[in-house]
Design a protein that fits this description.
The protein has 106 residues and is mainly alpha-helical. Helices cover 40% and strands 4% of the residues. The longest helix has 11 residues, at 6-16.
Length: 106
Amino acid sequence: MQEKNSYQKIYEVVKQIPRGTVATYGQVAALAGNHRWARVVGYALHVNPDPESIPCYRVVNREGRLSDAFAFGGVNRQKLLLEADGVEVSDGHVDLERYQWRCEVF
């Protein structure tokens, strides 16, 4: 059996983020197996091979800020996608107390 690479692990985590919630880069990294992979998460999402199935727009920074360099249409696209999910975005920011994914390790 082939071992999964870091990007595959990251994509599996991002696929689990429920509609109406967000996760941070660090949270995704930890759930993917290495809390030091926050930047790797950013790189992986930037080359997302399947945006329809891997909702990378649901990942924000540790302060709840949207990405300035969102790979699939810019920061406004990420905002629109999050709002369509029911996540309120104010001044490029998501309230993590309200919208952060509270998950158990799966």
